[in-house]
Amino acid sequence: MIGGGVLGLALSGVGILAFDWIAGALAPEPAGGGWLAAVADAAPILQDALVLAGLALGLWLAAAWALRRRPLSFVTTAKHFRWPLLAAGFVPFALLQLAALGATVGFRAEHGAFVAYPSGLEAAAFCLAALAFGAPAVMAEEVLFRGWILSGDTSAGWRNLLLVLASSLVFCIAHLQSDGLLVALHFVSGAAYGWAVVRLGGLEFALGAHLAKNTVAAALLGAPGQHRWGGEFDAVVIASLAASACLFAVVEAVRAWRRL
Question: Which controlled-vocabulary keywords does the entry list (predicted)?
Fold first, then answer.
C-alpha cells in the first residue's frame, strides 16, 4: 500500500499539471462573460477532483495488484459496469436535492448558476461543467470509502450494517467541518451510499446519487469556495439532510424493481 500511496501522489501531481493546462486554456475568455467563462467558474471543482482522483487511482491499482483482483471488482460485483443503476441513483436524487435546496434558498443563492448568469446557455454550461469536473472526485471517494465493502459477501446482514456505519464514519471524518449539521449530513449521506452498495452489489447507484448531490449543490449554491452563506445555512443543510435520508427508501425501491 506504500507503493500505492507513492503512485497516487505521483498521479496527483499529474492531475495538478493537467489542471494548470486546462485553466490556462480557459483563461483567455474575456471578463465580460460567455459560456466559456461560466465553465471557468466551475474550475475549482476540477482542481480538487484531479488531485483526489490521482491519489485514489494509485491506491486502487495497488490494491488490485496486491490482492490479485480485477480493478472492476472494487466497483461492482457484476461482470460489467451497470449504467442503468448509475442513472437510477442520479435522476431521483437530483430531483430530491433540487426540490429540497430549491425550496430552501428559493433559487436565490448569490452564486448559484440560476441567478449568477444572464442567459440559460451560461447557466447550463456551468452545470454541465460542474457535472463533468466533479465526476473524478465522486468516483475516487466512492472507491476509497466504499469500494472495499465489495470485498466480501454483500448480503444485508449485521456484518455489512457495521461496514456501512464504519464507512460512513470514515467518510464523515474525511469531510469534517466545524458545524455539527454538516457532520451529520456527511454521515447520513455516507450511510445511504454504503447501504446502496450493500443492497445493490456495487457502487453504481451511489456514484449516481453522490454526483447528483454535488452537481445540484453547485448549480444552486455555486462552486466550492463561492458560497456566501446567510441566515439560510442551517435550513439548507437540514433540507439536504432530509433528501439524503430519503435515499434509503429509493435504494429499496430500486432493489424491489430489479427483483421484479
Answer: Hydrolase, Membrane, Metalloprotease, Protease, Transmembrane, Transmembrane helix
**Number of structural domains found in the chain:** 1
- Separation of alpha carbons 166 and 197, rounded Å: 13
> What is the CB neighbour count within 10 angstroms for residue 134?
24
Q: Tens digit of pLDDT for each residue in 209-218? A: 999 999 998 8
Judged by DSSP in three states, 75 sits in coil
Q: Is residue 34 part of a domain?
A: no
Those residues with Cβ within 8 angstroms of residue 44's Cβ, 6 or more apart along the chain or in another chain: 223, 224, 225, 226
User: How distant, in Å, are the alpha carbons of 86, 99, 195, 211 from that of 90?
Assistant: 6, 14, 16, 7
Q: Of 139, 227, 154, which Cα lies nearest the Cα of 195?
A: 154
> What's the Cα-to-Cα distance from 169 to each of 162, 163, 223, 234, rounded to whole Å?
10, 10, 25, 21
Q: Which domain holds residue 204?
A: 75-259
CA–CA separation, 252 and 157 (whole Å): 15
More confident: 179 or 54 = 54
Cell of 100: 429540497
Q: What is the pTM of this model?
A: 0.85
**pLDDT per residue over 212-247, tens digit each?**
999 998 888 877 666 555 556 777 888 888 999 999
In-domain check, residue 163: yes
Q: Which three cell numbers stand for residue 153?
A: 459477501
- Say how far apart CA 213 and CA 196 lie, in whole Å: 15
Residues 6+ apart with CB under 8 A from 182: 175, 237
